[in-house]
């Protein structure tokens, strides 16, 4: 089902690059995996004990899936998507089409997707699917507790909302019932209805002629008008529209700025322990996002045309986070989530250049995670024992590889800017950042190269990273920046060694 990764893909990605074919391969592979995860959710629900997933819930899942398939067919029939042969054929058509599209190195761009798959490929559908699988996995755990059963009810209700939005965007006329969670009904890519009552509230939805009527007990009807892309407008105060920023390029679609989806919250995972929480933006904060975003494309391009191209190809939504409390609220934080391919979580950007660097950093986590899903790069265990100058704690080999890869990309980004910029303050800042990140990579790279746990593809990938690091020496930073960067790394190593003296020192 998943073809071998061509050597040219390993070579391009190892250089922190990636042409259209390579980036398209990563995207198609991730979309295929998303459809397979969805199939796993449906299969797990069908086979679940009735104490976990009731017959009524199973029936509603089948109905929602049938609505998704009908939305796909309806979009194809109206000529709003690719070839009609990509649709139809029952429930397998969605999964089958996605699988066939993941061809390694075929040179074709990703096929257009209809409203059903567009929603299923949204990044935050991934965390929703994972939550569903966790709730449906009752093997050896006994009957579900009330908290788990309530979460599963909400997860399955969200799938109904996904199917409803897809059908509405496909132009279908129908009536259905949805359930708001904690007084909020989120309709992905459209917005959110705040119900008159709190708790889980039933809402009747009627769609016709690109309009949705939302009806609840003891409250006026809310009419929502669908728009192309992200968002839907309504004159009702109970409705909050989904927001989006302009596309990075004039030809690119708008970029969702998602501060509504209930699955944007990170609830577990060691990578996310220091992150601030997702936030709902007010008008002032949304304007600050727009100001930084408006200059981000130019800032990315100044670090190489490739940086802008990979952002256009891989980035699918932005999830705003609260400003971190440290440094009087002047700090920042960002992350990606492996199960949410294409999402970037970030506090409000300080300026376009800083945000461009954040995008380079996080999208290289995305690239490496996607590549690691396709090919085994190393067979190292998860023991945390490696020194990384950017972290106070020991890192496992996989974490070190991720960190070195993203820092190598930022070093390349700032070197290109330093060579391009003419104003001394901006140029010196870029050289300082380049020297810092390159020195950090140089301190950690030997541990990656010397590991016996690298596979053959992993060795090719890491060797290209080394070659990229070495080529940077052809245009060195001014000596003062280099000396300061090396002193910083030396001090970080000394402090790390004192803290973790009992650990072996594999970096040396």
How do the strands of the widest beta sheet line up side by side?
Answer: 1-4-5-6-7
Round the mean pLDDT to the nearest integer and report it.
88
Instruction: Estimate what percentage of residues fall within beta strands.
Output: 5-15%
Q: How many runs of DSSP E, i.e. beta strands? A: 13
For the sheet with most strands, the description reads:
5 strands, antiparallel
Return residue spans where pLDDT drops below 50 for at least 5 consecutive residues. 80-92, 95-112
The gyration radius over C-alpha positions equals 24 Å
Could you characterize what this model shows?
The protein is an alpha+beta fold. It has 15 helices and 13 strands. The strands form four sheets. It has a five-stranded antiparallel sheet with strand order 1-4-5-6-7, with helices on one face. The longest helix has 28 residues, at 20-47. The two termini are 41 Å apart.
């Amino acid at each position: 089902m998943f073809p071998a990764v061509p050597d040219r893909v390993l070579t391009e990605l190892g250089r922190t690059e990636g042409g259209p074919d390579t980036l398209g391969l990563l995207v198609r592979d991730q979309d295929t995996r998303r459809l397979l995860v969805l199939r796993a959710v449906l299969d797990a629900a069908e086979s679940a004990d009735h104490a976990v997933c009731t017959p009524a819930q199973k029936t509603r899942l089948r109905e929602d899936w049938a609505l998704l398939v009908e939305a796909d067919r309806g979009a194809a029939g109206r000529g709003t998507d690719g070839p009609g042969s990509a649709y139809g054929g029952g429930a397998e058509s969605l999964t089958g089409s996605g699988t066939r599209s993941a061809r390694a190195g075929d040179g074709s761009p990703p096929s257009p997707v209809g409203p059903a798959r567009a929603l299923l490929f949204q990044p935050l559908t991934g965390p929703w699917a994972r939550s569903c699988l966790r709730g449906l996995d009752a093997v050896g755990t006994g009957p579900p507790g009330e908290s788990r059963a309530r979460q599963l009810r909400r997860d399955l209700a969200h799938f109904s909302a996904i199917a409803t939005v897809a059908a509405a965007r496909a132009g279908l006329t129908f009536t259905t019932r949805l359930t708001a969670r904690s007084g909020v009904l989120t309709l992905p890519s459209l917005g959110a209805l705040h119900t008159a009552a709190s708790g889980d509230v039933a809402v009747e939805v009627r769609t016709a002629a690109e309009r949705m009527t939302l009806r609840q007990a003891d409250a006026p009807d809310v009419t929502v008008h669908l728009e192309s892309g992200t968002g839907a407008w309504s004159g009702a105060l109970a409705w909050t529209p989904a927001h989006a920023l302009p596309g990075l390029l004039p030809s690119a679609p708008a970029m969702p700025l998602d501060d509504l989806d209930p699955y944007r919250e990170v609830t577990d995972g060691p990578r996310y322990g220091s992150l601030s929480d997702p936030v709902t933006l007010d008008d002032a904060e949304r304007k600050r996002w727009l100001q930084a975003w408006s200059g981000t494309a130019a800032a990315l391009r100044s670090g190489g045309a490739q940086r802008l191209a990979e952002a256009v190809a891989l980035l699918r939504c932005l999830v705003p986070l609260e400003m971190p409390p440290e440094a009087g609220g002047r700090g920042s934080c960002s992350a990606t989530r492996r199960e949410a391919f294409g999402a970037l979580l970030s506090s409000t950007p300080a300026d376009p250049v800083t945000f461009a660097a954040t995008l380079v950093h996080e999208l290289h986590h995305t690239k490496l995670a996607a590549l690691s899903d396709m090919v085994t790069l190393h067979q190292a265990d998860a023991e945390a024992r490696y020194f990384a100058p950017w972290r106070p704690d020991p890192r496992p080999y996989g974490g070190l590889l991720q960190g070195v890869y993203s820092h190598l990309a930022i070093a390349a980004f700032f070197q290109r800017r330093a060579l391009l910029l003419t104003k001394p303050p901006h140029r010196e800042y870029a050289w300082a950042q380049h020297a810092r990140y390159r020195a950090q990579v140089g301190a950690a790279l030997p541990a990656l190269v010397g590991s016996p746990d690298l596979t053959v593809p992993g060795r090719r990938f890491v060797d290209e990273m080394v070659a990229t690091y070495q080529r940077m020496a052809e245009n060195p930073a001014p000596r003062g920046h280099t000396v300061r960067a090396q002193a910083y790394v030396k001090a970080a190593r000394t402090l790390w060694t004192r803290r973790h003296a009992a650990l072996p020192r594999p970096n040396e």
